[in-house]
Amino acid sequence: QSVLTQPPSVSGAPGQRVTIPCTGSSSNIGADYDVHWYQHLPGTAPKLFIYGNINRPSGVPDRFSGSKSGTSASLAITGLQAEDEADYYCQSYDSSLNAYVFGTGTKVTVL
Amino acid sequence: EVQLVESGGDVVQPGGSLRLSCALSGFTFGDYWMHWVRQVPGQGLVWVSRINGDGTTTNYADSVKGRFTISKDNAKNTLYLQMNSLRAEDTAVYYCVRVLGGVSLHNEPYDIWGHGAMVIVSS
User: What value does the mean pLDDT take over residues B5-15?
Assistant: First the structure.
């Protein structure tokens, strides 16, 4: 079950800025659990792109940034590049479900 | 190099059983929590189960509780997922994932992923 909601798709031209919202509730993001973001290319292993709401692992370009406020979080990509085309998932923990939860996923398309 | 390699995926009939394995290399297995996450083709990621470093604590998603069992053999550097009473809705790619160490409980991100094992439940 996906208790974190994301738009199915976002798109932008090369060089533009896009944001992917991740909407949760008072039992997950709003309960102050951290939000993490993963990039997933079909047929490959998902890759951690943002952890602890705002932190980038080594090797992730600094055009990717994360933020969190209240019951929502977002991933921003500035200076969009063709290689950024992928599916992106947010992830957190839900205290009502006692489960780790993922967002519904967003496909980023570079026009 | 830190690496996770799943195996054991197969086609199985409804009601059948299957055991997935995940071979680890490049880190000390006993120091980390490990999880299983699955993805139905064309759908999103779903958490399945987790186990702590010494194998004494396990947790499961409600959808698999009572049917799946997670375990580990630290000496063999291998994580397992025993799946019984399989249903069509268990058809998915199953990923073995490592949790980033040193992070407070329930705030851990998944820093290392395997490439997945495909399980198909069909008659």
Answer: 97
Predicted confidence (pLDDT) at residue A2 exceeds the cutoff of 80 = no
**B51 has which bridge partners?**
B34, B58
Interface residues of chain B, partner chain A, Cβ below 8 Å: 35, 37, 44-47, 50, 59, 61-62, 95, 100, 103, 106-107, 109-111, 113-116
Q: Are B72 and B80 in contact (CB under 8 A)?
A: yes
Number of A/B CB contacts below 8 angstroms equals 62
- Helix then strand then coil, % of chain B, to nearest 5: 5, 50, 45
- Interface-testing mutation among A100, A101, A107, with chain B (most B C-beta atoms within 10 A): A100
pLDDT recorded at residue A101: 97
By C-alpha distance, the chain A residue nearest B118 is: A43
